[in-house]
Specification:
This protein folds into 2 domains: 43 residues; 78 residues, no CATH class. Helix 3 packs across helix 4. It is rod-shaped. The protein is mainly α and 129 residues long. Strands 1-2 form a two-stranded antiparallel sheet. The chain starts with a helix and ends in a 7-residue tail after the last helix. It has 5 helices and 2 strands.
């Protein structure tokens, strides 16, 4: 075998090893993405869970221990989109994504609402005991 033929064989071998390494890396990345997808599917709430949480929030807004709004999540003849965004999307969904149960996520909402100016204004003594 001539030197140039040996060089070609060695070059092809190196190229084959490099491609094998790239394929192996891509397979690992795909496996990681599949794992992440499975984790997300297990921790992100379903539509029915979000609907139930929003209904609970509506009732909490109406309650004496909540914001005492007779119309709940309804302000000026329209839904309180800001309230839904703040408490359901920013608190509830993130809590569930972190692995919190439905009840734990709701308790995070309660604690966050109790830190709001509106809640403090309606509960000057610190709320129901």
């Amino acid at each position: 075998m001539k030197k140039w033929q040996i060089a070609i064989v060695v070059g092809l071998g190196v190229l084959a090893l490099y491609q094998w390494s790239v394929v192996r890396s891509l397979r690992a990345e795909l496996a990681d993405r599949g794992y992440m997808l499975r984790v997300c599917q297990q921790t992100i709430p379903t539509r029915s869970e979000l609907t139930a949480a929003a209904q609970w929030l509506h009732e909490y807004y109406q309650s004496q221990e909540g914001l005492q709004r007779p119309q709940g999540l309804w302000v000026n003849d329209r839904p309180d989109f800001e309230g839904v965004s703040a408490w359901i999307l920013d608190v509830y969904v993130w809590a569930r994504a972190e692995g919190a149960s439905d009840e734990e996520a709701r308790q995070r909402i309660v604690r966050a609402i109790q830190g709001s100016d509106e809640w403090k204004l309606k509960h000057p003594s610190g709320g129901p005991k």
